[in-house]
């Protein structure tokens, strides 16, 4: 999991399946049959490569109008981050719902058996069981399969949505607090109240090219509801950067320090903070650690100073600057007193992500150069 691998993946996508992305992106051909999506999300999730450079590369490759659908999908990732940043209760509510879900499993043996069969790929539902095993074995699922899986989990198996989202976070190598949490909420009908996503057998047959044909799905469920939707809060301001010597703290939400707007600072020490998702699989932990090692190596070369995982006294009393850590585990673990810098991309897009996606989508032409 390195920046070089992410750039290679981007190049392969633009030279290969990228041209057919708009037509093919919803099709899940299965393992070993060639990707229909970019598979850049593990690198974007950690910002080994940035949204801005991916969008710029797509525009160069496909010209005006040729990359619209792909660019829109990149902005969905930005939208989710901005929305969670201005609705942080969606994250804390999710964590509370995970705890409540485990309480239900402890109290209800029948529900516990259904949950165990679901995460072990023994639910008896064609496709769903295959996706559960694929997720655990590879750390990856096609985006359409993620939607089908979440819908079946919530509406057919009647399992707590937050336990499904937590299952994804444990195993997805691109598991992102914002994209994952809000996508599950959207499927359930909580993100856009009353608008839920329903997995239908015909749709699964069509977009898996006949590989799966599930029966017994609940195709006419009601959306979930909640007493109080997460409240919108003002987007916090970034911190002014100090002048002179500073220590730079890297974290898993932004591992491209070379492009951070560190005006007037001189980086003389670098630390890497790794905070895995709760219960993260060994595969996810290995990806996190490889990504951090790559970022530390690049940063020490770029700034010509020592860098290592954080430990006691790592900053040696210097002011600590860091890329903005969006809502999630890294932000929660951030040491007190860190000065947070935010990228122009986020500053431009996040204020337009407070409601539905349409507002951000309409601003994409103006934001592409951010």
What do we call the CATH topology of the largest domain? DNA Cyclobutane Dipyrimidine Photolyase, subunit A, domain 3
Main-sheet strand order equals 3-2-1-4-5
Secondary-structure element string: HHHHHHHHHHHHEEHEEHEHH
Query: What Rg, in angstroms, do the CA atoms define?
Result: 21 Å
Features:
five-stranded parallel β-sheet, 49% helix, alpha/beta, 5 strands, globular, DNA Cyclobutane Dipyrimidine Photolyase, subunit A, domain 3, Serine Threonine Protein Phosphatase 5, Tetratricopeptide repeat, 370 residues
Q: What is the strand and helix layout of this fold?
A:
Layout: H1 3-15, H2 21-24, H3 41-45, H4 51-62, H5 68-86, H6 89-107, H7 109-119, H8 128-138, H9 143-156, H10 161-171, H11 177-188, H12 201-207, E1 244-251, E2 265-273, H13 282-303, E3 307-309, E4 320-323, H14 329-333, E5 339-341, H15 344-349, H16 357-367
Parallel strand pairs: 1-2, 1-4, 2-3, 4-5
Helix pairs in contact: 4-5, 5-11, 5-16, 6-7, 6-10, 9-11, 10-11
Mind explaining what this structure looks like?
- It is a single chain.
- This protein has 370 residues and is of the alpha/beta class.
- It has 3 domains: 3-86 and 350-367, Serine Threonine Protein Phosphatase 5, Tetratricopeptide repeat (Alpha Horseshoe), CATH 1.25.40.80; 89-207, Orthogonal Bundle (DNA Cyclobutane Dipyrimidine Photolyase, subunit A, domain 3); 244-341, no CATH class.
- Helices cover 49% and strands 7% of the residues.
- The protein has 16 helices and 5 strands.
- Strands 3-2-1-4-5 form a 5-stranded parallel beta sheet, covered by helices on one side.
- Strand 4 (320-323), helix 14 and strand 5 (339-341) form a beta-alpha-beta unit.
- The radius of gyration is 21 Å and the shape is globular.
- The two termini are 26 Å apart.
């Amino acid at each position: 999991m390195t920046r070089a691998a992410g750039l290679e993946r981007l190049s392969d996508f633009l030279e290969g399946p990228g041209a057919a992305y708009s037509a093919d992106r919803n099709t899940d051909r299965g393992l070993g049959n060639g990707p229909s999506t970019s598979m850049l999300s593990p690198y974007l999730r950690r910002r080994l490569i940035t949204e801005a450079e991916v969008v710029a590369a797509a525009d160069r490759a496909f010209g005006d109008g040729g990359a619209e659908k792909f660019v829109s999908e990149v902005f969905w990732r930005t939208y989710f981050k901005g929305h969670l940043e201005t609705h942080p209760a969606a994250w804390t509510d999710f964590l509370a719902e995970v705890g409540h879900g485990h309480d239900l499993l402890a109290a209800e043996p029948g529900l516990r058996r259904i949950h165990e069969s679901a995460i072990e790929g023994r639910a008896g539902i064609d496709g769903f069981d295959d996706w559960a095993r694929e997720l655990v074995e590879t750390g990856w699922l096609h985006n359409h399969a993620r939607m089908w899986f979440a819908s079946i989990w919530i509406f057919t198996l009647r399992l707590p949505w937050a336990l499904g989202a937590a299952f994804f976070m444990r195993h997805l190598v691109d598991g992102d607090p914002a994209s994952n949490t809000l996508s599950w909420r959207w499927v359930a009908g909580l993100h856009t109240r009353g608008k839920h996503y329903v997995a239908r057998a015909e749709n699964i047959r069509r977009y898996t090219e006949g590989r799966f044909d599930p029966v017994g799905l609940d195709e006419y469920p009601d959306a979930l509801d909640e007493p109080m939707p997460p409240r919108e809060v003002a987007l916090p301001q970034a911190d002014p950067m100090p002048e002179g010597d500073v220590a730079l703290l890297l974290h898993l939400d932004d591992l491209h320090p070379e492009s951070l707007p560190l005006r007037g600072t001189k980086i003389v020490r670098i630390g890497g903070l790794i905070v895995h998702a709760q219960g993260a699989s060994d595969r996810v932990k290995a990806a996190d650690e490889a990504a951090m090692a790559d970022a530390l190596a690049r940063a020490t070369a770029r700034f010509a100073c020592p860098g290592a995982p954080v430990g006691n006294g790592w900053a040696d009393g210097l002011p600590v600057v860091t890329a903005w850590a969006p809502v999630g585990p890294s932000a929660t673990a951030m040491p007190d007193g860190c000065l947070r810098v935010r990228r122009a991309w986020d500053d431009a897009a996040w204020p337009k992500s407070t409601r539905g996606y349409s507002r951000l989508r309409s601003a994409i032409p103006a934001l592409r150069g951010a």
